[in-house]
Design a protein that fits this description.
The protein has one domain (about 5-20, about 45-315): NADP-dependent oxidoreductase domain (TIM Barrel, Alpha-Beta Barrel). The chain has 13 helices and 10 strands. The protein has helices spanning about 40, 65-70, 80-85, 90-100, 115-125, 145-155, 160-170, 175-185, 200-205, 250-255, 275-285, 300-310, 315, and strands at about 50, 55-60, 60-65, 105-110, 130-135, 155-160, 190-195, 215, 260-265, 290. Strands 3-4-5-6-7-8-9-10 form an 8-stranded parallel barrel, surrounded by 6 helices.
């Protein structure tokens, strides 16, 4: 497997990023069931799907940070501003439409007001049907409101965001993580757990939290800005912002015994790993779905790559069984 890494080719790589943001109030809105406008009426390219509970998802899921305005750029501090200048509201709507045209039927994004406003516009103005998987940002003192508002708005699934999962592990609050999952599921949608640290998943399994799915980072360390031996801070405490899976080998080992669907994110280490390498690594490692942030001009290539890899016999017969 050949890996070619170049930060100068940032805009030619898919970028997946994670961020913490607070929920802003938004009116209840759900994707229309019988939309007949452009986005819904055009045939999508064939992209394999699988289920989490009753929810049918494309194997490739769009990350939402490029749409909500967040970016990991290491020491290239101008990149977030550049990204936001490119991804105007109309460009975001165009990108969502292109995703659906290519068969990507789901988006993971945080419950910020600008994201929800754009989704409302897309569902209403363009007849889109893309499904929103909401990052849950529950507060320790009020962990239900954030989750409830996302579901009322139209989220088809909710998971507790990875930074929060890591933080609650560090603070000894993982029991609250289990309560959040139970609450999400009680609202009639799949409930999941996100993490950068594999210990969050291991503890969840040991304590029987029983999420419907996990959203866990998965990337190799064969890129030039990967974690150095002297970098031992947790992902959530790392100001260098250059790694999201501290122990890829352990991630693969632990996840191999987890009988739950796994949505892998940060598979390109926020743009440092080329898609040909990062996609293959995540699928061979056992991921059931890939979450990748995409600019509009990257969608077709990423969909084609996903289709090609899923047809590869090595990936079809990988060691970890397909859990979705």
């Amino acid at each position: 497997m050949k890996d070619t890494v170049s930060r100068r080719q940032f805009l030619s790589n898919s970028v997946a990023a994670g961020a913490v943001a607070s929920l802003a109030a938004s009116p209840t809105f759900a994707a229309p069931a019988g939309a007949t406008t452009a986005a819904a009426s055009r045939p999508a390219s064939a992209l394999p799907t699988a289920k989490i509970g009753s929810l049918t998802l494309s194997r490739l899921i769009s990350g939402g940070n490029l749409l909500s305005g967040w970016a990991h750029a290491r020491d290239l501090h101008y990149v977030p501003s550049l990204m936001r200048a490119y991804n105007t509201p109309e460009k975001v709507l165009d990108t969502l439409e292109r995703l659906e045209q290519q068969g990507v039927n789901a988006l993971i994004a945080d419950p910020r007001k600008n994201v929800m406003d754009l989704l409302a516009r897309y569902w209403k103005e363009r007849g889109g049907r893309i499904q929103w998987i909401a990052e849950g940002h529950p507060d320790v003192e009020d962990w239900q409101t954030n989750i409830r508002k996302s579901i009322e708005f139209g989220a088809r699934a909710v998971y507790v965001q990875g930074v929060i999962g890591d933080r609650w592990l560090k603070e000894g609050r993982l029991d609250l993580l289990g309560r959040c999952v139970e609450f999400i599921k009680s609202q009639g949608v799949p409930g999941g757990i996100g993490a950068h640290q594999i210990e969050v998943v291991a503890e969840s399994e040991q304590r029987g939290f029983d999420p419907d799915f996990y959203v866990k980072t998965c990337h190799h360390a064969r890129y030039w800005s990967a974690r150095r031996p002297d970098q031992d801070l947790l992902v959530i405490d790392n100001p260098a912002d250059n790694y999201w899976d501290m122990d890829p080998v352990r991630t693969v080992r632990v996840m191999s015994a987890v009988e739950k669907p796994w949505i892998a994110f940060k598979i390109l280490a926020a743009g440092a790993i080329r898609p040909e390498s990062g996609f293959r690594y995540a699928l061979e490692s056992g991921a059931d779905f890939l979450c990748v942030g995409m600019f509009d001009f990257q969608v077709e290539a990423n969909v084609a790559l996903t289709r090609s890899l899923l047809a590869d016999s090595t990936i079809q017969n990988r060691p970890r069984a397909w859990m979705a």
